[in-house]
Structures are given as structure tokens and as C-alpha cells.
User: What shape does this take?
Amino acid sequence: MFERPQRGERALILNIGIGHAPDPDVLAEFKSLACAAGADIVGSLQANLRTPNPRHLIGKGKLEELSVLAD
Assistant: This one.
């Protein structure tokens, strides 16, 4: 058996919809799963993409928003 840490890792959750709006039910489920795994959710962000960015999946603007949330 293994020991779980007392405090979870900090997590930012990004809900992406490619070609459609992100599903809020998926975001809620992912938050629940992350919490059950011990994550400390510090923020979440949703993105609606027409096509994925080949370099980072999301565009420059969303990367900047994530950076602000991470600080």
C-alpha cells in the first residue's frame, strides 16, 4: 500500500471544445475527479477552438490567461 500526501497538488483545469462550445458537465466531472485525486483546484478556464494550435493546443490569448491564473 502507498501513502497519500496530506495536501494535493495545485491544479488549473482547462475545458476545451474543438469545433463546439465546451461542455460544462465535462468541466464539473473533471473538477470532481481532480478533487477526488487530491488536487487543490486553484482555477479553471474554458476555450472554444475552431482548430487546435499546433504548438500549444490553445492560442496565445488563452496561454496568457492561464499564466495569470497560475500566479
